[in-house]
Design goal:
mainly alpha; 3 helices
């Protein structure tokens, strides 16, 4: 998605070889993405070890997880027991209709 939405604005058509420019930019992006993900992976080991060693952090994590789960349980019945959002009273579901197109004023 990134390649199709962001990279084309950096391609210079006047320089030629548009496909080669896209491949080069995509390769640079892939290298930077791999580098940043590697750094996150390597640093997460140390962060996990530091957090796992602290009983205070573990207790907070259990409490926070419990509160989130209790929040989900309390919110579920208020939604009628299903995952669909409720509509406002008096509102109607959106239906998309296409208007006919007048092609008489189109020029060839």
């Amino acid at each position: 998605m990134f390649y199709a939405s962001v990279l084309p604005q950096f391609v210079n058509r006047g320089a030629g070889h548009v496909a080669l420019q896209m491949l080069l930019l995509g390769g640079i992006f892939a290298i930077f993405a791999a580098g940043s993900l590697t750094m996150v992976t390597l640093s997460s080991r140390r962060v996990k070890a530091a957090l796992a060693a602290s009983p205070r952090v573990q207790a907070f994590s259990r409490w926070a997880t419990g509160l989130v789960l209790i929040g989900f349980v309390c919110a579920w019945p208020s939604n009628g027991g299903n995952a669909r959002p409720r509509r406002l009273p008096g509102s109607r579901p959106f239906k998309m209709t296409l208007a006919p197109v007048d092609k008489s004023d189109w020029s060839d």
